[in-house]
Amino acid sequence: MPDKNRLRRAVLTGTGTYLPEKIVTNADMALQVDTSDDWITERTGIKQRHFAAPHETAAFMGAEAGRRALEAAGMAPEQLGAIIVGTSTPDQAFPSTAVHVQAALGATNAYGFDIAAACSGFIFGLSVADAMIRSGQVESVLVIGSEVYSRILNFADRGTCVLFGDGAGAVLLQARDVEKDGAGLLSTHLHSDGRLAEILYVDGAVGQPDKPGHLVMNGREVFRHAVTLLSGAVNEALAANSLTAADIDWLVPHQANKRIIDGVGKKLGLPPERVVVTVDKHANTSAASIPLALAAAVADGRIKPGQIVLLEALGGGLTWGSALLRL
Ligand code: ACO
Hints:
By secondary structure, the chain is α/β, with parallel strands linked by helices. The chain has 10 helices and 13 strands. It has 2 domains: 6-179, Peroxisomal Thiolase, Chain A, domain 1, CATH 3.40.47; 184-326, Thiolase/Chalcone synthase (Peroxisomal Thiolase, Chain A, domain 1, 3-Layer(aba) Sandwich), CATH 3.40.47.10. The chain has a 5-stranded mixed β-sheet with strand order 1-7-6-4-5, with helices on both faces. It has a 4-stranded mixed β-sheet with strand order 8-13-12-11, with helices on both faces. A two-stranded antiparallel sheet has the order 2-3. It binds acetyl coenzyme *A (ACO). The site of acetyl coenzyme *A has 24 residues, from α2, α6, α7, α8 and β12.
């Protein structure tokens, strides 16, 4: 007889990151673009970003982050069930970045696929992985966000090129039978609104003639929607779990912009010391930003076992969502 007090949940058992070696400070950016450290810092909180070398592709960085997450959990690659990569800068149109990661890791018994939800890719990936684990389809999923936005930035547009960076972050989720108030993903909440596609997009793709594509953004419009939509998704996660902001130990938001992060934290009534901020160190790394921030706060001991962590992201689509997790 199954124990009714125990649930099958996706439990986070390891995190890993990879950031390219090359660091580009705001002062470095000002050498090639008409901008300044003051402007970037004041508007975004960004101080530096990492830019990938030619060999540092989404698959390469994703595999490195994934390898570190597996090592942290003590899992051999061939034990892994599935790999999901959130990316909007894949190595190729196909095959997926995830199968390149699979080959690099030697995860011979896994299957892999990519998620295209721009900056929300990690949250969307977590949600799919959660459903796969809860349904009993797999025992473990590596969820990775890996991005090389430096390859799609328009360096003639100072309003966007200073905002983004490259990197990868990964988490390992494993099926566990836990008590109702035990560890694991508690819920995920996903949204999109294609009517807002034109405020943040890439103006090309491999499917379009002679148009590899550059990122285009109406920053003011994105900002206007971001705090409202993200606050909605965060409140949805709290309501679904009968929790209030006081129950949240950490908010780990998508690291796009310090002003958006502060806006959501303030609306939630969460003190800044319970919000994890890493955007100063790596700028907006899109789908990689949440696992990068989460891994940093786990590694330095801020996030501890048993604590409740709220994740949120918004990106091109628009897509947005939240996830609630007990470590
Ligand atoms: N350096 C110096 N000046 C600049 C720069 C720059 N890098 N970029 C723009 N400016 C100038 C503009 O030309 C303009 O000058 P003008 O007044 O002489 O015309 C002035 O600064 C103000 O420009 P705005 O675009 O109105 O600046 P704003 O205050 O809106 O800040 C920003 C721009 C930072 C992009 C802001 O709109 C924002 O934070 N938007 C949110 C977008 C975001 O974070 N997107 C990330 C992707 S989506 C996501 O991940 C959530």
